[in-house]
Amino acid sequence: MNLNKVQLIGRLTADLELRTTASGQSVTNFGLATNRYWTDKDGKRAEETEFHNIVLWGKQAEVASQYLKKGSLAYIEGRLQTRTWKDKEGQNRKTTEIIADRVQFGPRAAGASGTFSPEASSTPSSSSPKKTSSPAEDMPFEEPIPQIDLDDDEVRAEDVPF
User: Fold this and answer.
1) Does position 127 have pLDDT exceeding 60, yes or no?
2) Alpha-carbon distance 34 to 46, whole Å?
3) How far is CA 23 from each of CA 19, 32, 53, 64, 127, rounded to the nearest angstrom?
4) Continuous segment of H or E residues that includes residue 86
5) What pLDDT does 147 receive?
6) Which of 43, 95, 129, 141 is deepest in the core (most CB within 10 A)?
7) Which of 55, 49, 52 is nearest to 37 (CA)?
């Protein structure tokens, strides 16, 4: 049995640019940054960032290009694919990309244009002064997971959280 599956949650490194192939298929490529945190041997908090190349095709590419912007949080599920080509100088080039099968958008602040801002979601009005925050407060906001009551066998439309 073989498995080629990738799951990532990260932030977009740039705005998406939707393109169309010669055959009329929509496609977009973008970068996704993921962070890993740990405590080093001296007891200090350390961080490492990885950058991933993501490819979206078809309707998902069209929808994502409308709603995702630089800094947006996104969940990507897909597969690894390595491709080779010759560059303008005739050199062989190789890259590994994630071909996304599924994309889920992260939370957005009310009125935001695609980027998530913890300050905007926790500040009741935009005219209130900004406060200084500790590093723990700068961590991304986590929405509570809605609970769906399934006491009966029927799922009602008002129980679906989206």
Assistant:
1) no
2) 14
3) 11, 27, 23, 20, 49
4) strand 73-86
5) 55
6) 141
7) 49
**Single-letter amino acid code for the residue at 44:** K
- The SS3 call for residue 72 is coil
Q: What pLDDT digit, counting tens, does each position of 100-116 carry?
A: 999 999 886 555 554 44
Q: How far apart are CA 58 and CA 20, in angstroms?
A: 9
pTM over 0.70: no
pLDDT value for 141: 52
Residue 121 pLDDT greater than 60, yes or no: no
Classify residue 10 as exposed, middle or buried by CB count within 10 Å of its CB (0-12, 13-18, 19+): buried
The answer to whether 101 touches 81, Cβ cutoff 8 Å, is: no
The H or E element containing residue 79 is: strand 73-86
Query: If 0-12 CB within 10 Å is exposed, 13-18 middle and 19+ buried, where does residue 74 land?
Result: buried
Rg (CA), the chain: 20
Residue 52 in contact with residue 10, Cβ under 8 Å?
yes
Task: Check pLDDT > 90 for residue 6.
Answer: yes
> 34 with 52: CB under 8 angstroms?
yes
Closest to 54 measured CA to CA, from 75, 71, 25: 75
Are 159 and 148 contacting, i.e. CB atoms less than 8 angstroms apart? yes
